[in-house]
Amino acid sequence: METRLNPVEARVIATLVEKEITTPNNYPLTLTSLTTACNQKSNRYPVTDLTEEEVARALYNLRERNVAWETAPAGSRVMKYSHEISRLLPLTDQQLAVMTELMLRGPQTVGELRTHCERMHPLGDITQAAETLQSLADYPDGPLVVKLPREPGRRENRYAHLLCGEPEISDDPVEVKQDTAVLAVRAENERIAALEEDVEQLRSQMTELLEQFAGFKKQFE
Length: 221
Hints:
- The longest helix has 40 residues, at 180-219.
- By secondary structure, the protein is mainly alpha-helical.
- The chain has helices at 7-22, 31-38, 52-64, 93-105, 110-116, 126-137, 180-219; strands spanning 29-30, 68-71, 80-83, 145-147, 159-161.
- Helix 5 packs across helix 6.
- The protein folds into three domains: 1-88, Winged helix-like DNA-binding domain superfamily/Winged helix DNA-binding domain (Arc Repressor Mutant, subunit A, Orthogonal Bundle), CATH 1.10.10.10; 92-167, Winged helix-like DNA-binding domain superfamily/Winged helix DNA-binding domain (Arc Repressor Mutant, subunit A, Orthogonal Bundle), CATH 1.10.10.10; 176-221.
- A hairpin with an 8-residue loop joins strand 2 (68-71) and strand 3 (80-83).
């Protein structure tokens, strides 16, 4: 079966998997709750602003491939949606947790995945987490994850999923953002240094003027 997804489909299916595991009492999800979950600001990168129409279109495509289902639970007045990702990818619990986190948060290091997967399924120690990633890279039907080149400013390699194709790799150096407080202190120090330089220049000019004045005074004595 073709496993290629577009980014919205990947976000939708990963969100359904996540919510089934982390909030089973609220699963399956309505279209509104699924859209809200796709767009939540925590545990998501990038943060999206998908409309219900965009999510519904992704669900339609997933239903056509028998990966998502539309149901009407007893007592419910609205349709709800569930996933059947095992039809697309037969995975172990550890593998599914890793793929879900990569689809929800983007590229991550082994350590980050080990921490983030804890809420869905523990990966064990760092060695076991790395082994799970390697099993996905060696997946029988083709690799599902790829190890990215180490980026400038990073100590570890990150991994990305391949369900949406090869990830884009930028040659630009990673921009390391400074804390607001650090930037404020730095700006204040630079301002003080500039004022001290101005004062020093004024002091020098004043000394020169005093010397010139003293010279003129001697001429008239």
